[in-house]
């Protein structure tokens, strides 16, 4: 267990209440796999007390959650804004690579952005949120930790540990999506879009990364899965998503479906079903038919 070397930062009663909420409620809602609980509930808060950037990032997320639980109170929303601004003001002075406080703080700020996007009644904010996460993480190895305790939080390390640990029925991926990049697919219309190899490859890689995210979520690493898809899809796919291309929206629909099936404890994904309804309304009839393929072999194993 980490033990602070220097004295903890001054904490007022509001900050203490936010940290208490983190340890007793919020920590278990970010990832439900038991292996995550000690880190989220005990180790990270202890690490934060003499690290201002990490502390403000955690308190911002805790306050944002409380603002959703108690919408009649403006205090929590104000605290979320103030702590987020404090964290952002410290971010520019930090060296990112190799410093655990930076990595974790960025992760929690990103989670605040993610929860804000998911819970916004303006559905276009969902795409804006995914774009923001993509721009922050894509092509950068942020999740590299000095503390040996955190090595399992590296996405690549996660995958190597999880290979072969799949077998339950809910660990299945919609098989028809594996054809979304194929010009000769009989499932998806408008094959002419795929004449450009860059476009076809963007959809192919987006499906691969969505399948990986599905694996994370199915095994109780929900927030990692939610971030890993926008982190790892390509710049080209990000552009197609912002153009609201039907193929991109079909994948976005299944991303939301993935999160709609998470544990009720994952409050941050609770509006995923509403986003699915919005996407269904944006697509025309021929593309809506591609959202659900009730055919034999409609699901495939996440890990083959």
Automatic annotation (TrEMBL):
One of its GO terms (molecular function) is DNA-binding transcription activator activity, RNA polymerase II-specific. It holds the Pfam family Fungal_trans_2. This is Uncharacterized protein.
């Amino acid at each position: 267990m980490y033990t602070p070397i220097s004295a903890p930062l001054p904490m007022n009663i509001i900050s203490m209440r936010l940290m208490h909420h983190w340890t007793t409620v919020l920590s278990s809602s970010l990832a439900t796999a038991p292996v995550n609980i000690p880190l989220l509930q005990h180790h990270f808060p202890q690490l934060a007390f003499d690290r201002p950037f990490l502390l403000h990032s955690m308190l911002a997320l805790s306050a944002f959650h409380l603002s959703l639980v108690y919408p009649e109170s403006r205090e929590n929303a104000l605290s979320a804004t103030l702590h987020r601004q404090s964290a952002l003001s410290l971010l520019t002075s930090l060296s990112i690579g190799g410093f655990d406080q930076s990595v974790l703080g960025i992760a929690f700020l990103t989670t605040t952005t993610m929860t804000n996007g998911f819970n916004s009644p303006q559905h276009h904010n969902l795409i804006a949120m995914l774009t923001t996460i993509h721009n922050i993480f894509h092509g950068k190895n942020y999740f590299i930790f000095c503390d040996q305790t955190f090595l399992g939080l590296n996405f690549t390390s996660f995958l190597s540990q999880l290979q072969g640990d799949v077998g339950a029925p809910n660990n299945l991926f919609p098989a028809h999506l594996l054809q979304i990049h194929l010009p000769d697919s009989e499932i998806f219309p408008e094959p002419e879009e795929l004449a450009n190899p860059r476009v076809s490859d963007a959809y192919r890689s987006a499906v691969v990364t969505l399948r990986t995210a599905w694996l994370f979520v199915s095994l109780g690493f929900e927030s990692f899965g939610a971030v890993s898809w926008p982190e790892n899809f390509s710049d080209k796919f990000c552009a197609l998503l912002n153009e609201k291309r039907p193929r991109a929206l079909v994948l976005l629909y299944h991303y939301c479906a993935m999160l709609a099936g998470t544990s009720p404890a994952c409050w941050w994904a609770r509006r995923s079903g509403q986003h699915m309804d919005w996407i269904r309304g944006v697509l025309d009839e021929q593309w809506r038919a591609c959202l659900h393929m009730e055919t034999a072999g409609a699901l495939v194993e996440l890990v083959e």
